[in-house]
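re: ur question from the group chat, yeah i did fold both. here u go
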Amino acid sequence: MSYLHSRPSNIDDAGCIQKITPQSANWQYVSFEVHQLAAGESKIFSSDDQETCMVIVSGLADVTTAQQSWKNIGERMSVFEKKAPYSVYTPPKDAISVIANTELEIAICRAPAVGTYPTRLIKPQDCSYETRGTGTNQRHVCNILFANMEAEKLLVVEVITPDGNWSSYPPHKHDSDNLPLESSLEETYFHKLNPEQGFAFQRVYTDDRSIDETISVENNSVVMVPEGYHPVGAPHGYELYYLNVMAGPTREWVFKNDPAHEWIINKD
C-alpha cells in the first residue's frame, strides 16, 4: 500500500476515521481529521496554535465556540446532494463544541496561525462555485475557504468529479515556493464515492520520479500530496467527491501544469 494513502478506520472509540498530522505525514502545515458522530453525541475540538475550519460534511449539528453559537446548522445528508456545506472557522485558542442532531460527519482542517481573523460561520451562500474543464475533464468546484474568505494559511475546497471524468487534470503541482510563478502547498484529498463501494485512481508523481505512486482510493480514503503532480480519475458509473485542504508558507494557490500534458488545455 502506498505510504501516501490513509485508508479509513475507527482509530479511536469516539469515531475518528481519519487523522493526518504533520508528524504522520512528514510535513509542516496541514492537519486533517474526520469524525463520525451518532445523533446525540458530542465532541470538543480545541487548538492553541492552529486555525481551524470545521466542515459539516453531512448531517445537522449545534455548534458553540467561545463567544458564538449556532443551532441545527447543516443542510445536506450526503455530499452528492450537490449543496454547499456549512463550516465554522476559528482562530487559535478558540474551541469548537459540537452536538450531533442527526448522524453527523465533520472534517477538522487545521494549519498553524497566530490569530489574525475572528471566529465566523461560513454559510452555503458564502461559498463560491465554478465548473472547470470540458468534456471528460469537467468537474464542479465549491470554494469553502478560498479566495471567497480570509484565513492565515488554510485553503479548503470541495470537488465533484462526474463518473468517467478526470480532475486535478492536466496534472499540476504546487510544491515550489517561487511566487509569482508557483506556490508551495501541502495538500490532502478526502475521497467519497457514489455508490460508496466504488473506487477511483489518484497518481502522485514528481518530475524526477522520486515520488511515483498510483493509488486506488476507496470511500473515505485520504491521499496526502507532499509534492508533485496529483491527477484523479473516476471510473464509469462512480461519481467522485473530494475535500481538499491545502496550506503552506504563503496562502496563494499558484500551480504549474506538467509540461508533457499541458497541450490538453489548448486542445479543449
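okk and heres the other one u asked abt
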Amino acid sequence: MLGATEIAPQRYLASYGRALEDFTVGDVYEHRPGRTITEADNIQFSLLTMNSHPLHCDHAFAAESEFGRPLVNSALTLAIVVGMTVNDVSAKSVANLGWREIKLTAPVFPGDTIYARSEVLVVRESKSRPTQGIVTTRTEGYKSDGTVFMTFERASLIPKRGHCAA
C-alpha cells in the first residue's frame, strides 16, 4: 500500500505504487499534484514529437481559429495525465497492456491547470502468470474549473504482493 514501512527505529522506506491485492473495484484515486501547462511545455513537446501543427505554436494562426488562441498538444495532455496516475495505478506494474477509448472532450490551453482521477474497473488474476494480475482503470483528466477534457481506459499487468520489484 502507499506510504512507508519502518525498517529501523525512526527510519522509513517509502512505498511506491500498489500490488494487485491493493486494488478494489470501485475505488477512485484523486491524483496529485496537479500540473499547470505552460506555453514552453507545449512548444517544446510539439517540437520534440515533430508535431508542427500551427495551432500549437503560431499565435497569429491560432487567433484566427475557433479557439482564438493556441491549443495544448493533446499528446502532451495524455502524457501528463498518464504520468499523474503512475504512483496510484502503475508504479509496481510489470507492463502497460494498453489504452482504449481515448476521448478528447474539451480543449486545453497554455496556463490551464490539470488534474486526474482514476476509477478501478476490473481486477483479475492473470490466466498465464500466477504471480500477477490485470487491473483496468478509467481515467479522467480535468481542468481546475472541473471541465473534463480527456477520458481513457488503461490495462496494467500488476504483480501480487510478495512478487513486486524492490
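fwiw on the second one: Residues 104 and 150 are 5 Å apart (CA to CA). The chain has four helices and seven strands. idk if thats what u expected
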